[in-house]
Write a structure and sequence with these properties.
6 helices, mainly alpha, 145 residues, rod-shaped
Length: 145
């Protein structure tokens, strides 16, 4: 045992060093435990894995909500006058409403990719969300505004 005298007080270095090592070891163990638990509690989930996507749909679908489909896709053939063998124009609200009521438009856009009679002619099939909006427009009464 090593002892020394400092200001007439005797210190036992062995016991002091043992205490310091003991405290230091507990401190290290606590840090290791903390970081281990932090690393083990991490996951590879992203916000998309935990939160379902929110699809915002209007309460009632009107022609104004789906007009873009007719203007950007259908009028390539269903213009006025119709082109490429299309039987009727789809350029107005009345044209679109009549196509759903009398010409089976919802059936034609809902057919499987590659099916005979699928619209738009030659594909690709409209996105399912767009088809769903058109169906909802019909169910909501084919309102203009």
């Amino acid at each position: 045992m090593v002892t020394t005298c400092f200001n007439n007080k005797q210190f036992k270095f062995d016991s002091l060093i043992t205490k310091l090592i003991s405290i230091s070891m507990w401190y290290r163990l606590a840090l290791i435990a903390f970081f281990s638990s932090t690393l083990l509690s991490c996951s590879s989930n992203t916000i998309d894995d935990v939160v379902e996507p929110v699809i915002i749909e209007p309460e009632i679908v009107t022609y104004q909500n789906i007009k873009f489909v007719f203007e950007n896709i259908c009028t390539e053939c269903h213009s006025n006058p119709p082109q490429n063998g299309a039987p009727m124009p789809l350029v107005t609200f009345d044209n679109a409403r009549a196509a759903i009521l009398n010409r089976g438009l919802l059936d034609r856009i809902s057919r499987a990719e590659g099916s005979s009679g699928l619209m738009p002619l030659g594909g690709p099939r409209l996105p399912q969300g767009t088809i769903d909006m058109m169906v909802q427009w019909n169910e909501d009464g084919l309102l203009e505004n």
